[in-house]
Structures are given as structure tokens and as C-alpha cells.
Design a protein that fits this description.
It contains one helix and eleven strands. By secondary structure, the chain is α+β, with helices and mostly antiparallel strands.
Length: about 130
């Protein structure tokens, strides 16, 4: 091999090493901080909510609330009642914008189930028997 080709090859290997070293030293994009918020259940039923961080399912008790941790500033929240989804809420995170129980949270989601309406029956006219005369 000629000396010129060896020097070009060594220069290429050195440049490749410097580029990969610079990429390893350069900071990448900052990871998003976890956002902590509140899911408040205003219904008379226990609601299931899938967790964003694992494959777990969280149970929000009736007339209760839980803390919920997410990593995305915008996410969809789908609560389930008896295994069936009943609404989808699009949540936008605003850091420290929601005071609740003397602490500032990043978001607040309220779940309101429509309560069943009472059914009223139609009133019928009362039938009267005619009196016989005679």
C-alpha cells in the first residue's frame, strides 16, 4: 500500500473517532420531568384508569381522588367503568397551576358520570263503574 493511502485511511479513522467521541460528550435532549396531578372521581362508582408508566390499572374510589404521574405534557385519559370506557378526556399539563389540598399540582381531572334519571310512569285515569238504576 502506498504511504499516501495509509495516511488517508488513518486520517479517516481519526476523524471517525473524533466525531463519535464528540457525540458521546454532547448532551442529548433533556428528559421531561414527571408531572404529578390529581384524578378526582365525583361519581358513586369505582373507576379504573390505566397507568401511563406501567401496565397497571389504578382504581379511583367513589367520591375520592388519587395522585397520577405522567411524563407527557399532553395525554389522553380514558376511565373505565365495569371494563367499558365511558369517556375520553384530553389533558394539557400546566405546571403548578392547580392548588388542591394545600399543594400545587400540574393538572386536575374530574370524572363526572351522568347519574341515571328517575323514570316516571304515566298516570291513567281511574275507571268508574256506572251505577245501575232500576
Amino acid at each position: 500500500m502506498p504511504k499516501k493511502m495509509i495516511s488517508i485511511l488513518l486520517a479517516f479513522v481519526a476523524a471517525l473517532f473524533l466525531v463519535s467521541w464528540a457525540q458521546a460528550e454532547a448532551p442529548g435532549p433533556e428528559p421531561l420531568p414527571p408531572y404529578v396531578g390529581i384524578i378526582k372521581n365525583n361519581s358513586n362508582y369505582d373507576i379504573s384508569v390505566p397507568s401511563e408508566n406501567s401496565l397497571a390499572t389504578l382504581i379511583v374510589p367513589a367520591r375520592g381522588w388519587i395522585k397520577y404521574v405522567v411524563w407527557d405534557p399532553q395525554f389522553d385519559l380514558v376511565p373505565y367503568l365495569n371494563g367499558k370506557p365511558f369517556e375520553c378526556q384530553k389533558v394539557v399539563v400546566r405546571p403548578d397551576a392547580f392548588p388542591y389540598m394545600c399543594t400545587n399540582y400540574d393538572f386536575l381531572v374530574e370524572i363526572n358520570l351522568p347519574e341515571p334519571q328517575p323514570t316516571y310512569y304515566k298516570k291513567y285515569k281511574k275507571r268508574y263503574r256506572k251505577m245501575r238504576t232500576g
